[in-house]
Write a structure and sequence with these properties.
Length: 263
């Protein structure tokens, strides 16, 4: 499921950036980049300097990406891969916050309800590391909170301009208060998880610390250089093994949706 979420994120990212999806199938995307995205992702400063200097016609590159370790052509994208890290960083630069409206056809007046969205990357860190995506949505009218919000809205027709005959409902929950609620939900979800990975890290830490202590058990306590080395190596073990969790906000936004858009 995690690789499927990455695939959906990549497709949404490139479509929102105005790139052409040349080919799409499960775990596979071939994308023709725009000029802006070529400059952001392809690291060709000399090419763009030359083209702009001579006024030439630019030719943007095509990215072939896959989210499965199979025999298909393309660059594998997964958590921890440089390409996904690069895309996350560019998302923070160009689209940290968005406001979109659900496109509604017809001439009947339709109310659009505000949802606050928050997409985060949660990293479980010790001597090993695991990253996961968490997408939450909060209905600012009634306080309903849903997980996998990104997947729920990715196929909806969305537009940056409010459609004709539509009007937005005033939120009962202020966005800043909603953000605090979502942060609290993330903390609650993390508290409810079983952190066996952290217990295992502590066990490995204790084993290596025991080896370190046995290695230095007969050192002269008055030898300051050896004691300093012992202290340094002990601290290095702490930095290597001590479990901790980081939560990075990728982006967020306000989505104005019809009352029945989110089931």
């Amino acid at each position: 499921m995690q690789q499927e979420a990455i695939h959906n994120y990549l497709e949404t990212y490139f479509r929102a950036s105005g790139c052409d999806i040349l080919e799409k199938r499960p775990h596979f995307l071939k994308v023709k980049l725009t000029i802006e995205m070529d400059k952001r992702l392809m690291n060709r400063p000399f090419y763009w300097h030359y083209i702009e200097k001579i006024g030439g016609e630019p030719e943007t590159q095509t990215l072939t990406l896959k989210t499965a370790f199979n025999g298909d052509e393309g660059e594998v994208v997964h958590f921890g891969s440089p390409r996904l890290h690069q895309i996350f960083n560019s998302t923070k630069e160009i689209a940290r916050y968005i406001r979109l409206f659900q496109a509604v056809e017809g001439e009947h007046r339709t109310s659009l309800h505000p949802w606050l969205s928050l997409n985060t990357k949660i990293s479980y860190c010790c001597d090993l590391k695991k990253d996961t995506l968490l997408s939450l949505g909060l209905n600012l009218m009634n306080g309903t909170i849903v997980r996998d919000f990104h997947d729920m809205v990715k196929d909806l027709p969305l537009t940056p301009k409010i459609p004709d005959y539509c009007y937005t409902m005033s939120p009962m929950i202020r966005p800043i208060s909603g953000l605090k609620r979502l942060e609290g939900i993330i903390e609650h979800l993390l508290d409810e998880e079983e952190h066996k990975w952290a217990e295992a890290a502590h066990k490995r830490w204790e084993n290596d610390l025991d080896l370190l202590d046995r290695f230095y058990e007969e050192i002269d306590q008055e030898d300051e250089s050896l004691m300093a080395l012992y202290t340094m190596e002990k601290e290095a073990l702490r930095l290597q093994y001590e479990p901790h969790i980081t939560v990075d906000i990728i982006n967020g936004g306000l989505f104005y949706l019809t009352a029945d858009a989110i089931k």
